[in-house]
Amino acid sequence: MSEFDATAAVNIEPTAPVPFSLLPDSSEVDENGELTIGGCNIAEIAAEYGTPVFVYDEQHLRSRCREAVASFGSEVAYAGKAFLCIAMAKLVNEEGMCLDVASAGELYTAIRAGVPGNRIVFHGNNKSVRELQMAREYGVGRIVVDSADEIDRLENLHSEDGQVVSVLLRVTPGIRAETHEFISTGQEDSKFGFGIKSGAASAAVDRAKASNAINLLGIHSHIGSQVFRIESFDKALVVVSDFFKALDLPELSIGGGLGVAYVEDDIAASISEWGAQTKDTCARLGITDVRILAEPGRAIAAQAAITVYTIGTFKSLPGIRNYAAVDGGFVDNIRPVLYGSEYTSFAPQRVLEPRPDRARIVGSHCESGDIIIREASLPQGLNVGDLIATPVTGAYGHGMGSNYNRMGRPPVVFVSNGEARLVVRGEMLEDLLRLDID
Ligand code: LLP
Asked: Domains of the chain, with CATH numbers?
């Protein structure tokens, strides 16, 4: 059950224009007051590709990848679950990041994008034999082993062909990061990893060190996602460091999880700040001569994109509220209903205007919970047919999309230097039938 509380108080959105700090790096306003990203007018993109549409600032993505490499070194991985398609996998590889994949589908995308095996990190709490085989065949550089059953599977596969795989063992430090319960993973009571306190982690290390099937490279710990307080990573490092230092292994991964600002009041650290603090903490804890790895997903992709919608229906309930229904919803953003996540909105053709009008922005699905923004601020007097956009939708938006109500998932467009390119086309009616057998 979602912890989403329909009666919870929500932040009252400011009526000022949308803050540029929430928009992709290359956002500008043209002479008509309209938003451009990557030199492309957003209304023109909407006209060409239709709405809803995800528009990603390619240079923003590239610059965050470079920041990650500068902060953590060339073995830092982008967590593909945040947003993945062939173009994204290629971009990440071009920018010198490794790619973290967490399923056969993500691995297949990496393979089809030509990401070399040694640049792939393979995650998952329940990897199947088929997935492990696929990873071994492709020469995946690091398999992050999550359970004793997975060690069994790797040993069985090794007994058939003698292939040895390089492995990090995922441990749970027993730290609860301050984030939503569904995306907190470091606590003892977790489906992920080997608990340090219970002794499971030590037993797994002993087994991995003794195994012919495994080349144990290091330890991995991921405490959760959308973590604002970077001290949480330090708390985990304090627990992990005592365990790790005794093992004499070359690598320690702190996982991903760095939070990003979604609305004006959110304060988030940058990747560079996270990297610097991690280095300092490791040095203080005596973790030296070790490769420190990380796997940011959201911090690379979230702020790189906006989702553009068209308003289709207004409903005004005097004394209650206004509704503005757009042509997307769960299908492109499940996060508000799943985690109670907040977003802001603006009109891409009226970017600099104040936003005095109030409306609940809802999608087109057959559920009252299909809410994108509970209490949105909008420029005065928007009409049916006008565009509105939500910033910071580049992570866990398209990737968590669905075909609920048999609606097609929206297209994804990368913009850069005045050019737009379609990297994922929108699903059409025929796509929705492609698996049906009549
Ligand atoms: N590494 C591991 C092992 C992970 O499980 C995750 C995210 C990451 C890295 C990347 O975390 P990030 O840097 O993106 O926070 N659907 C949720 C987020 C789920 C995250 C799952 N694991 C959301 O929309 O907030």
From this structure: 6-56+303-432 (2.40.37.10), 58-302 (3.20.20.10)
